[in-house]
Amino acid sequence: MLQKLPSMPERPERPRTFGLTLMLDKGLSVRQVEDVLEVAGPYIDLVKLGWGTALLTPCLERKLACYRAAGLPVYLGGTLFEAFYLRGELDAYCRLVERLGLTHVEVSDGVLTIPLEEKLRVIRRLAAHFVVLSEVGSKDAERILPPYRWVQQIQAELEAGSWKVICEARESGTVGLYRPSGEVRAGLVDEIVAMVPPAQLIFEAPRKVQQVWFIRHLGPNVNLGNIAPEEVLPLETLRRGLRADTLLDGYRQASSAS
Amino acid sequence: MLQKLPSMPERPERPRTFGLTLMLDKGLSVRQVEDVLEVAGPYIDLVKLGWGTALLTPCLERKLACYRAAGLPVYLGGTLFEAFYLRGELDAYCRLVERLGLTHVEVSDGVLTIPLEEKLRVIRRLAAHFVVLSEVGSKDAERILPPYRWVQQIQAELEAGSWKVICEARESGTVGLYRPSGEVRAGLVDEIVAMVPPAQLIFEAPRKVQQVWFIRHLGPNVNLGNIAPEEVLPLETLRRGLRADTLLDGYRQASSAS
Amino acid sequence: MLQKLPSMPERPERPRTFGLTLMLDKGLSVRQVEDVLEVAGPYIDLVKLGWGTALLTPCLERKLACYRAAGLPVYLGGTLFEAFYLRGELDAYCRLVERLGLTHVEVSDGVLTIPLEEKLRVIRRLAAHFVVLSEVGSKDAERILPPYRWVQQIQAELEAGSWKVICEARESGTVGLYRPSGEVRAGLVDEIVAMVPPAQLIFEAPRKVQQVWFIRHLGPNVNLGNIAPEEVLPLETLRRGLRADTLLDGYRQASSAS
């Protein structure tokens, strides 16, 4: 940091266990990966290669080497897991993940309907080999899960071995945690965090207004996902009270804490 | 492709005559062109330098060389054609296209009102020297063409020598094929494809929801245009059933076809 | 320019005193700065490092060197000024600006409520050392300033030593000059330009439709700010009548002027 200001929100250093930022890479070139690492490397904790993009990326190996050199774990989007699972190819999926040298894996049922017991079995199995991120919430705006079901599912998946549970929003931020307009389902979030420690959750929050909402409600170190590469640095300014939306909140909280 | 999955939609290899993706370059640097080629080169068929950007791009020659080396045809946006045409400078326009070593040219009347007979004369004339893409549909949201007129115009322009006819949407996806909200004019598209083979048409579809609509209605190999550089790879995942929106459709169609 | 067309709107060369384009850099890498300079360098007049991003940018010094080599003045976003001011650290802020070798500075009260007399004192003080851009308008969509207050403030700040006054819109283009929908408050702009020469004003206009509005109402050489890097070249085409939205206006005005 160029210059520290008095009364700024505290942020843990990498490797962090909370205050995580998950970046969504939906098709960066090797050079673009280098660029985002130069500008925002210290603020990224984990990288998701969006949905099935990895299968179609010609320069994938070099890109993964680049993230590896920066010490950043990478995982494949949950939709790719579902594409293999749908075809009964879970073994092939595990081999692919291993062949790519990845340590993290996402288990989701955003498109498919997978009975919870079955999903838990998959999580248990994969958790023996990988760090598992599992995702709750449908990608279909019509399939609304009541809050108590979110809580039940999240708790069951953590017990089954998920490292963190991701709460769904998509790249668009219009499903799962959000109304089709992008507005946060505040009551839903309140019920979830009343029962599950936020450090075990990752909230997908692609839009700035959503990021601001979570930082205001759950503090600067809330775990946020689906952050576009060019939004990682802007998000970090929000967390540290260096952008208009959180300037006063950040200052007041840090002042009263000290 | 990293790994082929069973029951995936088939895609022809480049050079393709259908299943085309037209990328919109509205001001990439030479290095950014290299970047998009690295990540999405195999999925691009044609590049449009948006509207009049070419006239103002300092590094134009080097950029064109870069596309040429990748075997990708480039053409100048239709608005630049109209800017010359409006001034009675069609000859100068042809000389410019030749001087730049381009083989394709767009003829449009998105801003100007050009009588159809006159537009057909221009198409005939240019088709003697270049591959002509002509465009139907106004850039003005108020100028609504009834479906039968779209069909008549498209057919007449193909007969006059157009290689393909582009159906207008702009960079925003809010005119021509779409309502101001971005919603597809489904009835219009149905009437057009009832009379003209989709392989002869290019549908501008800048937004993901529009791309999904066309892939669902006309299959993975529909020709789509005005695709932003960073959306070329994501579009390819949609075509191949590797993104949530088309995962099940792609699987079912490919399963029943085999 | 590749080829000049008859009857195109005239644009002054850099360094310009009017017809300015202010680019918003919210986290470009050094290479991305080089890229935008290659493609749009001649069309940029000033660069703002958005809000507090500068404090968190690891490669800041090299980035500033890059802009300096291109002859482009850089300044820190007004929110960073406010973050220091709020903490009573105005001296530290001036030292930071000097240490970075910057010549321009922004004074704003988009988040804080600073009494006008106090803001004028700050402007006077900073104007002795730097070129001051001051900003009018709140970042809060609820805090609506009546037009006569905009005019009073702008005039007072210019008298106090501001080089230009920026009219607020944010990165989103939804406050200050605009309604929450992004629509221009046309009456407000009319009142302002009736009393203050437009050459002394910079209108933040991040959205294309807003840029078009200002170019149509105040001509191709209106000063526009908060322009995203990838929109600098597209904006220049709008100014020169090389994009659909201004093609006819630009041609008619230039024809009747000659």
From TrEMBL, chains A, B, C:
Does the record's keyword annotation contain Lyase? yes
Molecular function terms from GO = phosphosulfolactate synthase activity
Indicate whether Lyase appears among the record's keywords: yes
**InterPro entries, per the entry:** Aldolase_TIM (IPR013785), ComA_synth (IPR003830), ComA_synth_sf (IPR036112)
Q: What class of enzyme is it?
A: lyase
What is the similarity comment for this entry? Belongs to the phosphosulfolactate synthase family.
Q: What is this protein called?
A: Phosphosulfolactate synthase
